[in-house]
Protein backbone atom coordinates (compact mmCIF):
# COMPACT_ATOMS: atom_id res chain seq x y z
CA UNK A 1 0.00 0.00 0.00
CA UNK A 2 2.80 2.41 0.88
CA UNK A 3 4.54 1.88 -2.45
CA UNK A 4 1.39 2.69 -4.41
CA UNK A 5 -0.20 5.51 -2.41
CA UNK A 6 2.48 6.59 0.05
CA UNK A 7 0.21 5.80 3.01
CA UNK A 8 1.12 3.27 5.68
CA UNK A 9 -1.12 0.32 6.52
CA UNK A 10 -2.13 2.02 9.78
CA UNK A 11 -3.17 5.18 7.91
CA UNK A 12 -5.07 3.13 5.34
CA UNK A 13 -7.11 1.48 8.13
CA UNK A 14 -8.81 4.78 8.99
CA UNK A 15 -12.37 5.25 7.74
CA UNK A 16 -12.72 7.32 4.59
CA UNK A 17 -8.99 7.83 4.05
CA UNK A 18 -9.11 6.87 0.39
CA UNK A 19 -12.39 8.59 -0.48
CA UNK A 20 -10.95 11.91 0.67
CA UNK A 21 -8.05 11.51 -1.77
CA UNK A 22 -10.09 10.77 -4.89
CA UNK A 23 -10.68 13.43 -7.54
CA UNK A 24 -14.19 14.78 -6.98
CA UNK A 25 -15.01 14.53 -10.69
CA UNK A 26 -14.56 10.74 -10.47
CA UNK A 27 -16.87 10.24 -7.48
CA UNK A 28 -20.04 9.58 -9.49
CA UNK A 29 -18.32 6.91 -11.57
CA UNK A 30 -16.86 5.28 -8.45
CA UNK A 31 -20.19 5.25 -6.58
CA UNK A 32 -21.86 3.67 -9.62
CA UNK A 33 -19.22 0.91 -9.68
CA UNK A 34 -19.61 0.28 -5.95
CA UNK A 35 -23.39 0.05 -6.35
CA UNK A 36 -23.06 -2.55 -9.09
CA UNK A 37 -20.53 -4.54 -7.04
CA UNK A 38 -22.87 -4.62 -4.03
CA UNK A 39 -25.60 -6.16 -6.20
CA UNK A 40 -23.21 -8.93 -7.23
CA UNK A 41 -22.02 -7.59 -10.57
CA UNK A 42 -18.35 -7.35 -11.48
CA UNK A 43 -17.48 -3.67 -11.73
CA UNK A 44 -14.50 -1.58 -12.77
CA UNK A 45 -13.76 2.09 -12.12
CA UNK A 46 -10.80 4.24 -13.11
CA UNK A 47 -10.11 7.37 -11.08
CA UNK A 48 -7.42 9.84 -10.08
CA UNK A 49 -5.95 9.41 -6.62
CA UNK A 50 -3.85 11.91 -4.71
CA UNK A 51 -0.90 10.23 -3.03
CA UNK A 52 0.40 11.27 0.36
CA UNK A 53 3.11 13.40 -1.30
CA UNK A 54 0.32 15.32 -3.20
CA UNK A 55 1.22 13.75 -6.57
CA UNK A 56 -1.64 12.29 -8.61
CA UNK A 57 -1.85 8.77 -10.04
CA UNK A 58 -4.48 6.91 -12.03
CA UNK A 59 -6.00 3.85 -10.36
CA UNK A 60 -8.08 1.12 -11.97
CA UNK A 61 -10.25 -0.48 -9.31
CA UNK A 62 -11.60 -3.99 -9.88
CA UNK A 63 -14.58 -4.76 -7.62
CA UNK A 64 -16.41 -7.98 -6.88
CA UNK A 65 -18.89 -9.16 -4.21
CA UNK A 66 -18.12 -12.11 -1.93
CA UNK A 67 -19.85 -13.77 0.99
CA UNK A 68 -17.71 -14.86 3.92
CA UNK A 69 -18.16 -17.98 6.04
CA UNK A 70 -20.55 -16.13 8.32
CA UNK A 71 -22.75 -15.34 5.30
CA UNK A 72 -21.82 -11.67 5.52
CA UNK A 73 -21.54 -10.00 2.08
CA UNK A 74 -18.46 -7.91 1.39
CA UNK A 75 -16.94 -6.08 -1.57
CA UNK A 76 -13.32 -6.79 -2.42
CA UNK A 77 -11.34 -4.36 -4.55
CA UNK A 78 -8.01 -4.69 -6.35
CA UNK A 79 -6.04 -1.52 -7.10
CA UNK A 80 -3.91 -1.30 -10.27
CA UNK A 81 -1.69 1.69 -11.04
CA UNK A 82 -2.45 2.65 -14.68
CA UNK A 83 -0.80 6.09 -14.65
CA UNK A 84 1.75 5.19 -17.33
CA UNK A 85 -0.92 3.46 -19.42
CA UNK A 86 -3.15 6.56 -19.30
CA UNK A 87 -0.26 8.85 -20.22
CA UNK A 88 0.61 6.71 -23.24
CA UNK A 89 -3.04 6.60 -24.33
CA UNK A 90 -3.35 10.39 -24.11
CA UNK A 91 -0.11 10.89 -26.04
CA UNK A 92 -1.18 8.45 -28.75
CA UNK A 93 -4.54 10.21 -29.04
CA UNK A 94 -2.79 13.56 -29.35
CA UNK A 95 -0.39 12.16 -31.95
CA UNK A 96 -3.37 10.83 -33.91
CA UNK A 97 -5.04 14.25 -33.80
CA UNK A 98 -1.84 15.86 -35.06
CA UNK A 99 -1.66 13.35 -37.90
CA UNK A 100 -5.26 14.13 -38.86
CA UNK A 101 -4.52 17.85 -38.63
CA UNK A 102 -1.56 17.35 -40.96
CA UNK A 103 -3.79 15.60 -43.52
CA UNK A 104 -6.32 18.44 -43.26
CA UNK A 105 -3.57 21.04 -43.70
CA UNK A 106 -2.28 19.27 -46.82
CA UNK A 107 -5.79 19.26 -48.29
CA UNK A 108 -6.33 22.91 -47.40
CA UNK A 109 -3.01 23.78 -49.02
CA UNK A 110 -4.31 22.45 -52.32
CA UNK A 111 -7.53 24.47 -51.99
CA UNK A 112 -5.73 27.69 -51.03
CA UNK A 113 -3.51 27.61 -54.10
CA UNK A 114 -6.45 28.43 -56.37
CA UNK A 115 -7.53 31.73 -54.73
CA UNK A 116 -3.87 32.70 -54.36
CA UNK A 117 -3.34 32.17 -58.08
CA UNK A 118 -6.41 34.32 -58.80
CA UNK A 119 -5.12 37.08 -56.50
CA UNK A 120 -1.70 37.01 -58.12
CA UNK A 121 -3.14 37.05 -61.64
CA UNK A 122 -5.47 39.96 -60.82
CA UNK A 123 -2.62 41.96 -59.31
CA UNK A 124 -0.37 41.30 -62.31
CA UNK A 125 -3.14 42.39 -64.69
CA UNK A 126 -3.55 45.58 -62.66
CA UNK A 127 0.20 46.16 -62.88
CA UNK A 128 0.04 45.93 -66.67
CA UNK A 129 -2.92 48.32 -66.82
CA UNK A 130 -1.16 50.87 -64.61
CA UNK A 131 2.03 50.59 -66.66
CA UNK A 132 0.07 51.95 -69.67
CA UNK A 133 -0.84 55.15 -67.81
CA UNK A 134 1.12 58.32 -68.44
CA UNK A 135 1.50 59.14 -64.75
CA UNK A 136 0.92 56.01 -62.65
CA UNK A 137 0.67 56.46 -58.88
CA UNK A 138 3.95 55.29 -57.27
CA UNK A 139 2.03 54.41 -54.11
CA UNK A 140 -0.38 52.17 -56.03
CA UNK A 141 2.48 50.54 -57.93
CA UNK A 142 4.23 49.67 -54.66
CA UNK A 143 1.07 48.19 -53.19
CA UNK A 144 0.53 45.97 -56.20
CA UNK A 145 4.17 44.88 -56.06
CA UNK A 146 3.65 43.87 -52.43
CA UNK A 147 0.48 41.91 -53.30
CA UNK A 148 2.26 39.96 -56.05
CA UNK A 149 5.29 39.29 -53.84
CA UNK A 150 3.23 38.15 -50.82
CA UNK A 151 1.00 35.94 -52.98
CA UNK A 152 4.11 34.32 -54.45
CA UNK A 153 5.62 33.70 -51.02
CA UNK A 154 2.36 32.22 -49.73
CA UNK A 155 2.13 29.95 -52.77
CA UNK A 156 5.72 28.73 -52.28
CA UNK A 157 5.05 28.01 -48.60
CA UNK A 158 1.87 26.09 -49.41
CA UNK A 159 3.64 24.05 -52.09
CA UNK A 160 6.34 23.13 -49.60
CA UNK A 161 3.73 22.17 -46.98
CA UNK A 162 2.29 19.73 -49.50
CA UNK A 163 5.74 18.25 -50.13
CA UNK A 164 6.41 18.04 -46.39
CA UNK A 165 3.10 16.24 -45.77
CA UNK A 166 3.52 13.79 -48.64
CA UNK A 167 3.70 10.13 -47.67
CA UNK A 168 6.17 7.98 -49.55
CA UNK A 169 9.85 7.05 -49.78
CA UNK A 170 12.37 9.70 -50.71
CA UNK A 171 15.75 8.62 -52.02
CA UNK A 172 18.87 9.89 -50.28
CA UNK A 173 21.04 12.37 -52.09
CA UNK A 174 23.00 15.61 -51.67
CA UNK A 175 21.07 18.08 -49.50
CA UNK A 176 21.86 21.76 -49.01
CA UNK A 177 21.86 22.21 -45.23
CA UNK A 178 21.24 25.97 -45.37
CA UNK A 179 18.16 25.41 -47.54
CA UNK A 180 16.81 22.78 -45.13
CA UNK A 181 17.25 25.13 -42.15
CA UNK A 182 15.54 27.99 -44.00
CA UNK A 183 12.56 25.86 -45.07
CA UNK A 184 12.14 24.36 -41.60
CA UNK A 185 12.12 27.85 -40.07
CA UNK A 186 9.60 28.95 -42.70
CA UNK A 187 7.24 26.06 -41.94
CA UNK A 188 7.27 26.84 -38.23
CA UNK A 189 7.41 30.63 -38.63
CA UNK A 190 4.02 31.10 -36.96
CA UNK A 191 5.17 29.46 -33.73
CA UNK A 192 8.47 31.33 -33.86
CA UNK A 193 6.64 34.66 -34.11
CA UNK A 194 4.13 33.66 -31.43
CA UNK A 195 6.90 32.97 -28.92
CA UNK A 196 9.12 35.84 -30.16
CA UNK A 197 11.95 33.45 -31.04
CA UNK A 198 14.42 34.03 -33.89
CA UNK A 199 16.46 31.41 -35.71
CA UNK A 200 20.02 32.68 -36.17
CA UNK A 201 22.33 30.73 -38.46
CA UNK A 202 26.09 30.54 -38.77
CA UNK A 203 26.47 28.48 -41.94
CA UNK A 204 29.35 29.00 -44.32
CA UNK A 205 28.55 29.20 -48.03
CA UNK A 206 31.41 26.75 -48.65
CA UNK A 207 29.84 23.95 -46.60
CA UNK A 208 29.51 20.77 -48.67
CA UNK A 209 26.07 19.16 -49.03
CA UNK A 210 25.13 16.38 -46.65
CA UNK A 211 23.87 12.98 -47.72
CA UNK A 212 20.27 12.59 -46.67
CA UNK A 213 16.64 13.36 -47.47
CA UNK A 214 15.21 16.87 -47.36
CA UNK A 215 11.82 16.31 -45.72
CA UNK A 216 13.00 14.07 -42.82
CA UNK A 217 15.83 16.51 -42.04
CA UNK A 218 13.30 19.35 -42.01
CA UNK A 219 11.16 17.29 -39.64
CA UNK A 220 14.08 16.92 -37.23
CA UNK A 221 14.81 20.66 -37.26
CA UNK A 222 11.12 21.52 -36.85
CA UNK A 223 10.99 19.28 -33.78
CA UNK A 224 14.05 20.96 -32.28
CA UNK A 225 12.81 24.48 -33.11
CA UNK A 226 9.36 23.69 -31.69
CA UNK A 227 10.80 22.34 -28.43
CA UNK A 228 12.94 25.46 -28.06
CA UNK A 229 9.88 27.67 -28.60
CA UNK A 230 7.97 25.73 -25.92
CA UNK A 231 10.89 26.16 -23.51
CA UNK A 232 11.14 29.89 -24.19
CA UNK A 233 7.37 30.22 -23.70
CA UNK A 234 7.78 29.19 -20.05
CA UNK A 235 10.24 32.04 -19.39
CA UNK A 236 9.36 35.56 -18.30
CA UNK A 237 8.93 38.21 -20.99
CA UNK A 238 11.86 40.21 -19.62
CA UNK A 239 14.41 37.52 -20.38
CA UNK A 240 17.30 38.06 -22.80
CA UNK A 241 17.01 37.68 -26.56
CA UNK A 242 15.18 34.53 -27.55
CA UNK A 243 17.29 32.82 -30.16
CA UNK A 244 17.87 29.40 -31.66
CA UNK A 245 21.42 29.27 -32.96
CA UNK A 246 22.20 26.85 -35.79
CA UNK A 247 25.85 26.26 -36.62
CA UNK A 248 27.62 23.73 -38.84
CA UNK A 249 31.16 22.68 -39.63
CA UNK A 250 32.99 19.73 -41.10
CA UNK A 251 34.52 17.50 -38.41
CA UNK A 252 36.08 14.06 -38.88
CA UNK A 253 34.69 13.67 -42.41
CA UNK A 254 31.16 14.32 -41.10
CA UNK A 255 28.97 17.41 -40.99
CA UNK A 256 28.51 18.54 -37.39
CA UNK A 257 25.34 20.57 -36.91
CA UNK A 258 24.64 22.36 -33.63
CA UNK A 259 21.14 23.55 -32.66
CA UNK A 260 21.21 25.47 -29.38
CA UNK A 261 18.96 27.70 -27.31
CA UNK A 262 19.23 29.52 -23.97
CA UNK A 263 15.85 28.58 -22.56
CA UNK A 264 16.93 27.02 -19.27
CA UNK A 265 18.08 23.54 -20.25
CA UNK A 266 16.85 20.07 -19.34
CA UNK A 267 17.11 18.59 -15.83
CA UNK A 268 20.25 16.45 -15.71
CA UNK A 269 18.34 13.52 -14.20
CA UNK A 270 16.20 13.10 -17.34
CA UNK A 271 18.82 13.80 -20.01
CA UNK A 272 19.51 10.06 -20.57
CA UNK A 273 15.78 9.50 -21.26
CA UNK A 274 15.25 12.38 -23.67
CA UNK A 275 15.22 10.22 -26.83
CA UNK A 276 12.95 7.52 -25.42
CA UNK A 277 9.54 7.12 -27.12
CA UNK A 278 6.77 9.20 -25.54
CA UNK A 279 9.09 10.68 -22.92
CA UNK A 280 8.42 14.38 -22.35
CA UNK A 281 9.25 16.97 -19.71
CA UNK A 282 6.20 19.03 -20.69
CA UNK A 283 2.93 19.06 -18.71
CA UNK A 284 0.19 16.65 -19.78
CA UNK A 285 -1.50 18.03 -22.88
CA UNK A 286 1.44 20.26 -23.83
CA UNK A 287 3.44 17.75 -25.85
CA UNK A 288 3.03 14.40 -27.50
CA UNK A 289 6.46 13.06 -26.58
CA UNK A 290 7.53 11.14 -29.73
CA UNK A 291 9.22 14.14 -31.41
CA UNK A 292 12.76 13.57 -30.18
CA UNK A 293 12.44 9.81 -30.48
CA UNK A 294 11.40 10.19 -34.11
CA UNK A 295 14.24 12.64 -34.70
CA UNK A 296 16.69 10.15 -33.23
CA UNK A 297 15.37 7.45 -35.55
CA UNK A 298 15.60 9.69 -38.62
CA UNK A 299 19.19 10.75 -37.96
CA UNK A 300 20.24 7.16 -37.21
CA UNK A 301 18.58 5.91 -40.39
CA UNK A 302 20.52 8.52 -42.39
CA UNK A 303 23.78 7.16 -40.99
CA UNK A 304 24.31 9.92 -38.44
CA UNK A 305 24.15 10.50 -34.71
CA UNK A 306 22.36 12.98 -32.44
CA UNK A 307 23.34 13.90 -28.88
CA UNK A 308 22.11 16.43 -26.36
CA UNK A 309 23.67 18.37 -23.49
CA UNK A 310 23.05 21.43 -21.35
CA UNK A 311 25.26 24.36 -22.27
CA UNK A 312 25.29 28.14 -21.77
CA UNK A 313 21.97 28.21 -19.96
CA UNK A 314 20.11 26.11 -22.51
CA UNK A 315 20.02 22.93 -24.55
CA UNK A 316 22.43 22.05 -27.33
CA UNK A 317 21.75 19.25 -29.82
CA UNK A 318 24.76 18.01 -31.80
CA UNK A 319 23.93 16.18 -35.03
CA UNK A 320 26.52 14.40 -37.15
CA UNK A 321 25.54 13.65 -40.76
CA UNK A 322 27.51 12.01 -43.56
CA UNK A 323 28.82 14.34 -46.26
CA UNK A 324 27.69 13.70 -49.81
CA UNK A 325 30.56 12.48 -51.94
CA UNK A 326 31.46 14.52 -54.99
CA UNK A 327 30.39 12.85 -58.26
Q: Which percent range describes the beta-strand content?
A: 15-25%
- First CA to last CA: what distance? 67 Å
Radius of gyration: 28 Å
Q: How confident is the prediction overall: mean pLDDT?
A: 82
Query: Largest beta sheet, briefly?
Result: 5 strands, mixed
| Spatial order of strands in the largest sheet | 5-7-8-10-9
N-to-C SSE string, H for helix and E for strand:
HHHEEEHHEHHEEHEEHEE
Oligomer state of the chains in this structure? single chain
Q: How many H/I helical runs? A: 9
Gross morphology: elongated
State the secondary-structure class.
Answer: alpha+beta
Low-confidence stretches: 284-289
Instruction: Estimate percent helicity.
Output: 40-55%
Total count of strands: 10
Descriptive account of the structure:
With 327 residues, the chain is an alpha+beta fold. Helix 4 runs antiparallel to helix 5, helix 6 packs across helix 8 and helix 8 packs antiparallel against helix 9. The longest helix has 49 residues. The chain is elongated and about 105 Å long.
